Amino acid sequence: MTDIRTDAPGRTHDAIPGAVTASPAATTTEAARPRRAARVNGSAIVMGLYLLFLMLPIYWLLNMSLKTNSEILSTFSLWPQNLTLANYETILTDASWYMGYVNSIIYVTLNTVISITVALPAAYAFSRYSFMGDKHLFFWLLTNRMAPPAVFALPFFQLYSSVGLFDTHIAVALAHTLFNVPLAVWILEGFMRGVPREIDETAYIDGYSFPRFFVRIFMPLIASGIGVAAFFCFMFSWVELLLSRTLTSVEAKPIAATMTRTVSASGLDWGVLAAAGVLTIVPGALVIYFVRNYIAKGFALGRV
Amino acid sequence: MNKTINQKAWFLVLPVLVLVAFSAVIPLMTVVNYSVQDTFGGNQFFWAGLEWFDELLHSERMWDALGRQLAFSAIILAIEVPLGIFVALNMPKKGFWASLCLVLMSLPLLIPWNVVGTIWQIFGRVDIGLLGHTLDKLGISYNYTQDFLAAWATVIVMDVWHWTSLVALLAYAGLQSIPDAYYQAAKIDQASRWKVFRYIELPKMQGVLMIAILLRFMDSFMIYTEPFVVTGGGPGNATTFLSIDLVKMALGQFDLGPAAAFSLMYFLVILLISWVFYTVMTNLDKRDGL
Amino acid sequence: MAKITLDNLAHSYMPNPRGEEDYALKELNHDWVDGEAYALLGASGCGKSTLLNIISGLLQPSQGRILFDDVDVTAQPTAARNIAQVFQFPVVYDTMTVRDNLAFPLRNRGADADYVARRVQQIAAMIGMEAELNRKARGLTADAKQKISLGRGMVREDVNALLFDEPLTVIDPHMKWELRTQLKSLHNQFGHTMIYVTHDQTEALTFADKVVVMHDGRVVQIGTPEELFETPQHTFVGYFIGSPGMNVMPARIEGDQAYVNGTSLPLGRGYGPLSGKVEIGIRPEYARLSDSEGLPVNIRRVEDVGRHQIVRADCFGHDLNIIVDEGAGIGADMTRVSFDPARINVYADDWRVEGQATGRAA
Predict the structure, then answer these.
(1) Is C99 within 8 Å of chain B by CB?
(2) Is C325 exposed, middle or buried (0-12, 13-18, 19+ CB in 10 A)?
(3) Where residue B72 sits, what CATH number does that domain have?
């Protein structure tokens, strides 16, 4: 017992010889700053390297999109020697190119709206009530998020062809609900669980009907959850290619599929390919910019 | 939270049920239907029983693809989870730099998957890509379309590039939820950096890390587009993962019966592994709630 | 255990504080005597947690020094200061057992295993958790977790000071009393210097030898519970301590007489000329209802709180509380209130003015 008692104060005294004589302000700042700076620098180096790793391939794509094909193939340079916007011009003036973007944005928006609309009441039911088979239903919904699109590609093709929806935006939007609805239900349920039940009860006592309560009171409360769910629906629908390519041919062809065609047709048109790639990054970057303050919480799906 | 029993809640779930029935159950029935029949073209189908399943279980091609798939998922989980945690620990906590990191890190997650493939296809080429060119200049022979090792390395690095941020962002969200008092108490208790990580940060990240592992496992197990664009499954069958193999079989060769049987087995494997994860996760939740 | 000296200390959360109002903690000089139990009392946001975090080293002050036993520790990190701190919300290591939680600070400092085992057992007995020693801390109730935090704070015997930051917020009322008693007896037994932050006056007055009252980033009074009650140095102390708090009314002072709206009141002491905002303060306990003498009042409400009654009244538009003994009748003719002259405190610009014994006043 005594060994600690005598030992520790001694250490305390040893640690600060001379400190008493120094002026107080100087000791404070000098001792504190280098320590903090050193730690920040270590982290900054790690983050710097990681972000460099993330950005280099994207930069390279941007770099190539601003070069002519002959420059790409003849000289190897870290930045464009003859800066050109010709590749972008090609895409933005050719309907078969830019309609790809329009198509993608149409079905992604449709999908997001459908997914959130049907997921909201379901998530509410899961977060508030227990009913026959609720747990099984919830897990079964989640299993659809685990279904490989490759498994569904052919049956989807046949199903949507037989009901005459092949090559329409709504077909792709519906197909993407396969994985987006379960995800939206999951995320929204997490956020709704965080809203106390008393709010529901108070609203009913105040004479609100369920639909009015849901739209006027409940939805504003989970607005950030809806935003996060919409972000995820947008993200997964925007990046998916296999299903959207299988279910379209001309009218609703997504930009991603347009790109794959171009690669095989004129495999050497690297400049246009890179420009098209850069343009597909832009909508995602815009969405991220708008939700940047919710990203951290959003990625935890409301479960932190 | 105590939930009230209310069977009418089914009405609220109904829209989801109808939609998912249309987009999941009907197609799945089609798959089951194909898996037990044979066809000689046209619309003539014959009952084939479990023949396709039997054939599949004895098919070296399927087992090879499954082996490659498992190896791939294991490798990327082993890299992305620790790396993601490490990155999250080093991220700035707030302010401009935190926002910047969040935005830049999210960027790869929102790039269409075939564009991810294209980016790495270009980046790795010896003639026009920065990575390929640099490796070539350093005297390292690197060609992802010819060399087995280079193909795997490219696909793995690409996946790490694409998805580590997801793990990092989840882990970061977990870290952000730790109150300052924990770190202060640890300072007072003279805990080492390692102990702070082991006893404060890791336990608090447990929940989100399970989500991260589950998502990364599922998505890596279904990976199709990115390796397809970069390597096309080659060289040989070196990077032919389950989805690539399946699409080849179903849409390329139109072997509907075997493809359908393959699909079902594939789905079952994912379900099984995910169910294990899910059970572990909910058990952890229960333990927390005690 | 150590004497803690605050020398010229001040803190602002702004990088370039301009005026005094930018400081969360205004300039402060004080000695915390070795082995005493202090309570740091004040409303939320008054700077008491800031002060505590500066003492524990979690916060670097913007100016001034902190000395432990006359040794400057301002630049030392928390770990080197050898203090223990218990936080408002329970901080426990969820994945460890209760035993490992309690042993953690000792093991980190390399204490030997025998000693750790003995000491942990002792502390577990003190906080009443011997039965749960081998349980995981995860899943325990909030007050069990907070007991572990308290135990972890007390486990080291050699600490320079024990700091408590509103540690009983999450504890059940009956456990609060029990734990506070244990802390007190622990203090008597080991004689640690203890600083206990709270916004609850009962907690402060029952726990501490000396109470430090803070208001708006400033220490307004340091004293024993009795001093705070009898002679509040600042109107805030009068108002904050006591239930209900001290009555404060604007007045004019001339020698040993106070005039409230023209009505004169005798004072126990004499005062010279005062400038600024002049007020008198009187505890409800020292006010008496009568039918003839003193200031006129309107009784608005009478609250019976058991041991006594609180009369809520109105005097020249100011709220006035009077405590009347349980059972004493309050008649309709009770329209006046008189004060015990010796208990009236005089304030100029909120600070108490010391008077001179009567007779010698001008």
Answers:
(1) no
(2) exposed
(3) 1.10.3720.10
Closest CA to C205 of C236, C240, C173, C172: C240
* Exposed/middle/buried for residue C135 (C-beta within 10 Å: 0-12, 13-18, 19+): middle
Query: Domain-by-domain residue ranges, chain A?
Result: 94-299
Residues in B touching A284 (Cβ below 8 Å): 107, 109-111
**Contacts with B137 from chain A: Cβ below 8 Å:** none
Domain residue limits at B165: 61-289
Q: What is the pLDDT of residues B49-69, one digit of tens each?
A: 677 777 777 778 888 888 899
Name the one residue in this structure whose structure tokens are 């939270």: B1
Query: Is the four-CA dihedral C104, C107, C112, C113 of positive or negative sign?
Result: positive
Closest CA to C200 of C209, C213, C210: C213
Query: Per the CATH hierarchy, to which homologous superfamily does domain C4-240 belong?
Result: P-loop containing nucleotide triphosphate hydrolases (3.40.50.300)
The topology (CATH level 3) of C247-357 is: OB fold (Dihydrolipoamide Acetyltransferase, E2P) (2.40.50)
Chain B CB contacts of C96 under 8 Å are: 199
Question: Which residues 6+ apart lie within 8 Å of A38 measured at CB?
Answer: none
- Give this prediction's pTM: 0.79
Over chain C, what is the mean pLDDT?
Answer: 86
Task: Report CA-CA distances (Å) from A182 to A116, A163, A177, A189.
Answer: 10, 24, 8, 10
For residue C314, give every residue at least 6 positions away whose Cβ sits within 8 Å of its Cβ, in sequence order, or none. Answer: C297, C298, C300, C320
> What's the sign of the alpha-carbon dihedral B17, B21, B25, B27?
negative
| Whole-number Å distance between alpha carbons of C307 and C322 | 14
Residue B181 in any domain: the answer is yes
Please say whether the dihedral angle defined by the alpha carbons of residues C313, C319, C324 and C326, taken in this order, is positive or negative. Answer: positive
User: What ipTM was reported for this prediction?
Assistant: 0.84
B282 within a domain of the structure (yes/no): yes
Domains held by chain B: number: 1
Q: Which of residues 162-221 of B touch C (CB under 8 A)?
A: 179, 181-182, 184-185, 187-192, 195, 199-200, 203
* Residue B20 reports pLDDT greater than 90: no
**Mutate: best of C73, C119, C159, partner A, most A CBs <10 A:** C73
How far, CA to CA in Å, does A90 sit from each of A61, A67, A86, A218, A274? 17, 13, 6, 48, 12
For residue B12, being part of any structural domain is answered with no
Give the tokens for residue A146: 């685990």
> What pLDDT was estimated at residue B130?
86
* CATH fold of A94-299: MetI-like fold (1.10.3720)
Is C198 a residue whose pLDDT tops 70? yes
**Distance of alpha carbon A111 from alpha carbon C166, whole angstroms:** 51
Percent of chain C with pLDDT over 90: 12
Report the interhelical angle of B9-20 vs A95-128 (nearest 10°).
150
Residue A174: half-sphere exposure toward Cβ, Cα within 13 Å? 22
Q: What is the pLDDT of residue A1?
A: 36
Whole-number CA gyration radius for chain C: 24
Instruction: Please report, rounded to a whole number, the percentage of residues in chain B having pLDDT higher than 70.
Output: 91
Q: Can you read off the two tokens belonging to residue A1?
A: 């017992």
C280 touches C344 (CB < 8 A): yes
How far apart are alpha carbons A20 and A12 in whole angstroms? 13
Q: Which chains touch C (3+ CB pairs under 8 A)?
A: A, B
Would you call B185 and C149 a contact, using CB atoms and an 8 Å cutoff? yes
Domain regions of chain C by residue span: 4-240, 247-357
For residue C6, give the amino acid letter.
L
Mutation for C interface: A3, A28, A35, A36, most C CBs within 10 A: A28
| Distance of alpha carbon A294 from alpha carbon C289, whole angstroms | 61
In C208-282, where does DSSP find H-type helix? 225-230, 235-240
